[in-house]
Hints:
The complex is a heterodimer of chains A (330) and B (520).
Chain A: H1 2-24, E1 32-36, H2 43-57, E2 65-69, H3 76-84, E3 91-95, H4 98-105, E4 115-125, E5 127-131, H5 139-148, E6 151-156, H6 161-173, E7 177-182, H7 185-193, E8 199-200, H8 204-212, E9 216-221, E10 256-264, H9 269-283, H10 286-294, E11 298-302, H11 304-325
Helix pairs in contact in A: 4-11
Chain B: H1 2-14, H2 17-35, H3 41-48, H4 57-82, H5 91-102, H6 106-140, H7 144-161, H8 166-180, E1 183-184, E2 191-192, H9 206-224, H10 238-247, H11 252-267, H12 271-286, H13 298-314, H14 316-322, H15 328-339, H16 348-351, H17 353-383, H18 389-408, H19 411-429, H20 435-458, H21 469-495, H22 503-517
Antiparallel strand pairs in B: 1-2
Helix pairs in contact in B: 1-17, 2-3, 2-4, 2-17, 3-4, 3-15, 4-5, 4-6, 4-15, 4-17, 5-6, 5-13, 6-10, 6-11, 6-13, 6-14, 6-17, 7-8, 7-12, 7-20, 7-21, 8-20, 9-18, 9-19, 11-12, 11-13, 12-13, 18-19
Amino acid sequence: MGRTSTFLLSAAAAVLAGTMPALAAWQPQKPIEFVATAGPGGGTDNLARAVQNIITKHKLTEQPIVVVNKGGGSGAEGYVYGKASAGDPYKVIFGTSNAWQQPLVSKVAFNYTDLTPIAAMAQDEFLLWVKQDAPYKNAGDYLKAAASGEFRMGGAQSKDTDEVLTRMIEKAGNVKLTYIPFKSGAETAVQLAGGHLDSHVNNPSESLGQWRGGTQRPLCVFSPKRLPQGPKVTATEGWSDVPTCVEQGLDIKQYEQPRTVWLPGKVTPDQAAFYVDLMKKVQATPEWKDYIEKTSQVDTFLTGAEFDKFIKEDLEHVKQVAGEQGWLVK
Amino acid sequence: MDNLQELLHGFTIAVTVPHLLLMAVGVLLGILVGVLPGLGAPNGVSLLLPLTFGMQPVSAIILLSSMYWGALFGGSVTSILFNIPGEPSSVATTFDGYPMARDGRPTTALATAFGSAAFGALIGVILITFLASWVAQVALAFGPPEYFAVYFLAFASFVGMGGAAPIKTVVALAIGFAIAAIGIDTVSGSVRLTMGIDELVKGVNFVVAVMGLFGIGELLVAVEEEFHARAVSSKIDWREVFRAVGRLPRHSVALLRSAAIGCWMGITPGGPTAASFMSYGIARRFSRRGRYFGTGEVEGIISPETADHAAGTSALLPMLSLGIPGSATAAVMMGGLMIWGLNPGPMLFVDQKDFVWGLIASMYVGNIVAVALVLLTVPVFAALMRIPFVVIAPLIVIICVVGAYSVSNSYLDVVMMLGFGIVGYLFKKLFYPLAPLVLAIVIGDKAEDAFRQSMLLSKGSLGIFFANKLVTCLIVGGIALLLLPLALQLTRLLRKPAPSADETTVQATVQETAREKVII
């Protein structure tokens, strides 16, 4: 009898230990809305839909998930919506570093402090691209040519990541570039292919098709080390064959764009913890690996203090560039 | 003739029982989202997108593109029956489609629209089949100055060829530009004209604007004119469907001209909206019955519908070959392509032959399936017109309110939609044309971006608009169209001095022509 009761007790304890956190933790009770701060088809939209797909496939939560696009005003529409939904744990906002960069340079009615940070899930790399038949073979040649003539650099949006990087290149390479803003990276890539621009700084996925199709090629990547080995993009080269910009004398060690996930402000720590955990589970699936590889991004997971630190550092950096250019809003 | 061989191979992929079933399902769903309020093709396609992740890319794109065809046809249904265009490109269809339906000939209007739309789509697909490689080159030649020149040409064609007084067209365009400027500016990145309303940072959505301008505006005019007294009687006649389609070859000039305009605007990035407007304006100028346009003319339906579908179909080519989505729906499909692991771009035609040619073959078959299904449903839709106005009117208000709200689940959009309703009413009362206003709302900001990008490229010199043959031709054509009304007026003045004797009759005719044009 003694043995049985001890067994039962320990069994009960084990069951309790197993279920207690689950009972205490917050669980969603109604459908969840994923808000993509970009139009259908963009990188942020693709991420939101990939995460939705993985969660549904692996039944990571009981509740259905719908994706809505609020990409107006370069994403400001989605963030303003997040701010207005304070205290509502059923709205998950998917964005980029826009969340803290946009309020610096534009009079938008939100700031990243109005939202609850969940995680940065993937980093998109930046490369320096030129037209396939351009004469320069590396970043050094490019800078030499740029110093003598007026070069046209294209990019997505104004005073956003692409233009910040352009201004950094100007400073590091001691050149002057004319920056022409377009609506998206895809549009910029087409303009370069048509010879209307001299260069742009697209993410890998934005120009993958163009590189493979032989209309443009990357000179260097703004990363401390070369990109991971993957399948070949062209007949002879893959992402890992692209040298880093530092190797070629363009001293910008690192420039990345995180894909970020947020909840509205004023949610409870329990609710935030549920989504941090959910995103971690998503990241452990093979489908996620597949998504990362297909979009040529870098897998990363920053949350809590680490994520905060990242935001603060990036903010300081952008503030400096924006201040020098006179972009800061009063 | 490599292309033909590839196409035949494509047919072996597209014409299989599962794929034909997918087409039928896609088209039916498409018609449904096209007819239902607030659910346009882009929403429908994005709702369906997650379902396709497990499919073969060819099957997935066949399902999605069939849905697109269905939605395009469905959008014309609401334009014609209720004067509510579902997509920007079906706005021009309302000009003659709605009056014809109101006059008791909804079957003819719908059948004519579907028949000419099918013809336009067919020409578009044939073009894709034969010019795949060449088209990619043309699109690449378009830089910011060329984009601006195309938009400029579209605006100018309205001033020169539209029905209303040129100066009123300019005023309507200017108001449209101001509305298009609301929100974040691409070139400077700053927030403009939000008037202290935070939510306006997203800009004014097109759907919200047209639902108010056309749906509510028309309703207000109709209520005032006690239009409700007349219940529309329409006979559901199967033979009429075939008779209307059979009459189409008589308008072969209009059909071919509109298809040519549509294909040109689809390949160059003018898009289906500009194409349908331009085609309507040109038909009005050149048709022998041009002055009856706006009262339910057959060619007034044929021209925009043919151009719209020709442009919509041929616009898929730049998406596949260059990765430039020509429309919101194409943008969603492009997102799908990436998720299925394909990269839009020139190499798609080399790497993924099965996919590309399967899709092109399915465009032939899918459009045939779409036409068949939609023609079968014409009598059902036409029967809707027999419902008396007292029932339809509140229904239209509900459709507009629900539609405006569902664009981005925002109450502000509903308020704006009602505001646009009043604007639409005032425009009609004061004989101002609505079409240029809508055109400016849709492509005004794009034109502005292109102009300012050009100025950045040229360091502020207007010479960039005369830098090469392509852009010079487009700009000179635009300027010529702008000056056309002025030139016509001058020659009229020179020929005969103003008659003073029958001033009253002149005034009466002016009044009458203006009334006639109120529909546009």
